[in-house]
Design goal:
Strand content: 25-35%
CATH class: Alpha Beta
CATH topology: Beta-Lactamase
Structural class: alpha+beta
Order of helices and strands: EEHHEEHHEHEEHH
CATH superfamily: GAF domain
Number of strands: 7
CATH architecture: 2-Layer Sandwich
Oligomer: single chain
Number of helices: 7
Distance between the termini: 40 Å
Number of domains: 1
Length: about 210
Amino acid sequence: MGVYRWFNVLGLPLRDTEGEILRWFHLLIDIDARKRAELSLAGEKRLLEMVASNCPLTDVLTALCKFVEDTSSDCYCGVYLIDWRGSKFRIGAVPSLPATFNDPVDGLTVSPQVGPCGVAALTKTQVIATDLESDPLWQSSAIRPLALAHGLRSHWSTPIYAQEGRVLGTFAIFNRVPASPTQIQQDLIAQVTPHCQHSDRAGIERSGAEAK
C-alpha cells in the first residue's frame, strides 16, 4: 500500500544565452515531518480549546476521532466509553462509520468475546488485530461479522485511562485492509490517549466521567 508524503517542489529553468528555456531542474524537499508536526499541534490546540470551552462530550470525542482520521488517511476511528455499572460499551463517538455498524456495538458487554476492544479494556493493553478475517483468534468474536460486513479487515484497540488508572474506555482504529499500525499511527494513538499525559488528557477523562 502506498504512502502519501508532503514535499516542497522547486522548479529552476536552465536557459541559453538568449534566455530560452532549455530544460527544467526540479528540487524536491521532503517536509513530511514538519507538516505532520504542524497538523498535530493544530489538532491538539483545537481539542484543548474545545475542552476549555466545556463543549459537549460528543463534540470533543468526534473532533478527536476526526483529527486522527485526517492526519492518518484510510482509517476510521472510534471512542468507546464503558459504563462499569453494567459492564457495557457505550458509543462515545464513531463519526465516520454508519449506524448499521455503530448501533449493534452500543451496549455490548465488556468481555473478551466482543473482540479487540473487550480484550484491551480487560487486560489494560493495546490489542492489534491485523486481519479479522483470517486470524483464528477473532473467529468467534462479536465484532468480526459486523466489521467484515462493512468492509473492515483490521481493528486496533487501546485502553483509555483515568488518572488513577481505571479504564474509561477504548480508542479504536479500523482499516479496510489487513494492517498493523505504522509509527505515525502509534504516535497519534499515544497523543489521543492518556498514556503519554498529553494536554488533551483532561478532556478524555472528563468525557469518561460524564458518561458514567
